């Protein structure tokens, strides 16, 4: 018996259960064939798991065995799922290099978790990215199919694997805490009205308190931010803007990102800024994109990507510098 047969033993086909039921009833394959109006060969194919139990067959079995047709159909569906999963797993076993391309920190941070007896599996990584295969990941992230207002490509990024992981982590965190869909013009109006309050908040949080230095950093136990970060998130949420702090990777040292995700403007920032000054400049830079650049595209600081317009970055830098001056920073 080969390895596949051994695995199938743990998920029996509905045909095997049918054979056990026939033995209990004192019937054999020939008896069942006669009662169904099938040939003995056709019944043997069902018993051996070589032929699926269709709705018609399930209803016949209900009449003969007094076991509801839905039971046989569910057993067939479970068996089909098992076979499909085994087939997919087998097709992924020779793509371990793809898995190794992603930062190992993803597992340490518990973004992706592998079972001890299944460390070679790609399934957790595929689920993280919500793609069906490494080829689908390539198509979505590297072949200009990453969906924002238009499609962009990470193919030219130094480390598209780490970059995509950072972007996707923001999406996952966003999905855990849904916000109402926003319209671009109302958000801009609220942002303009709230800008003095945001600048005043920045002025009141210029430096990182000594007591906050440790919790500003990501730890294996939890992702936590200091009161300044939490306050900024709450302040922007009232406007209709989501702010997230997500630890990046050495190979993808992104400071900030702006995009619209599921009709909500999203500002995603690195969570390990050594100086508040750098954090605030990055934040105001991304805020400028919300105010001036609408829903089109995605802007990543420190990362060069396709469709990145220098004039937009210059405008965002100028806006950020003005906000920093207004907040009392020395720039």
Descriptive notes:
- This protein is an alpha+beta fold.
- The protein folds into 2 domains: 90 residues, lambda repressor-like DNA-binding domains (434 Repressor (Amino-terminal Domain), Orthogonal Bundle), CATH 1.10.260; 147 residues, no CATH class.
- The chain is built from 16 helices and 6 strands.
- It has a 4-stranded mixed beta sheet with strand order 3-5-4-6, sandwiched between helices. Strands 1-2 form a two-stranded antiparallel ribbon.
- A hairpin with a 3-residue loop joins strand 1 and strand 2.
- Helix 5 packs across helix 6 and helix 12 runs antiparallel to helix 14.
- The longest helix has 24 residues.
- 30% of the residues are buried.
- The N terminus is likely disordered.
Give the helix/strand layout.
Layout: H1 3-9, H2 14-25, H3 29-36, H4 40-47, H5 55-65, H6 69-92, H7 96-100, H8 105-108, H9 123-129, H10 134-142, E1 146-147, E2 151-152, H11 160-176, H12 184-204, H13 213-216, H14 227-239, E3 242-245, E4 256-261, E5 264-269, H15 276-292, E6 299-300, H16 310-326
Helix content: 55-70%
Query: Which stretches are low in confidence, meaning pLDDT under 50 for 5 or more residues running?
Result: 1-9, 213-222
User: Whole-number average pLDDT?
Assistant: 84
Give the neighbour order of strands across the main sheet. Answer: 3-5-4-6
Anisotropy-based shape: elongated
Oligomer: single chain
Q: How does the major sheet shape up?
A: 4 strands, mixed
Report the portion of residues in β strands.
Answer: 5-15%
Q: What count of helical segments does DSSP give?
A: 16
Task: Provide the domain count.
Answer: 2
Distance between the termini: 73 Å
Q: Structural class of the helices, strands and pairings?
A: alpha+beta
Number of strands: 6
Cα-atom radius of gyration: 28 Å
Order of helices and strands: HHHHHHHHHHEEHHHHEEEHEH
């Amino acid at each position: 018996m080969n390895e596949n047969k051994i695995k199938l033993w743990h998920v029996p086909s509905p045909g095997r259960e049918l054979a056990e039921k026939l033995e209990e009833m004192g019937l054999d394959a020939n008896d069942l064939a006669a009662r169904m109006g099938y040939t003995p060969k056709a019944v043997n194919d069902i018993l051996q798991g070589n032929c699926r139990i269709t709705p018609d067959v399930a209803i016949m079995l209900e009449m003969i065995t007094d076991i509801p047709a839905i039971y046989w159909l569910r057993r067939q569906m479970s068996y089909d799922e098992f076979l499909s999963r085994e087939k997919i797993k087998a097709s992924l076993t020779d793509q371990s290099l793809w898995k190794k391309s992603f930062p190992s920190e993803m597992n340490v941070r518990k973004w992706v978790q592998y079972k001890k007896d299944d460390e070679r599996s790609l399934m957790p990584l595929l689920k993280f990215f919500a793609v069906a295969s490494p080829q689908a990941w390539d198509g979505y992230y590297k072949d200009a199919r990453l969906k924002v207002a238009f499609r962009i490509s990470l193919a030219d990024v130094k480390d598209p694997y780490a970059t995509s992981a950072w972007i996707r982590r923001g999406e996952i965190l966003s999905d855990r805490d849904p916000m109402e869909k926003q319209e671009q013009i109302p958000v801009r109006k609220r942002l303009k009205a709230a800008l003095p309050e945001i600048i005043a908040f920045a002025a009141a949080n210029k430096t990182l308190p000594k007591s906050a230095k440790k919790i500003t950093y990501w730890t294996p136990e939890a992702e936590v931010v200091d009161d300044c970060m939490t306050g900024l998130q709450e302040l922007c949420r009232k406007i209709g803007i989501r702010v997230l702090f997500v630890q990046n990777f050495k190979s993808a040292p992104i400071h900030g990102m702006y995009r619209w995700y599921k009709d909500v403007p999203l500002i995603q920032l690195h969570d390990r800024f050594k100086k508040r000054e750098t954090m605030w400049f990055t934040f105001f830079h991304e805020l400028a994109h919300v105010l001036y650049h609408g829903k089109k595209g995605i802007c990543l600081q420190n990362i060069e990507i396709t469709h990145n317009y220098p004039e937009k970055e210059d405008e965002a830098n100028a806006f950020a510098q003005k906000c920093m001056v207004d907040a009392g920073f020395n720039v």
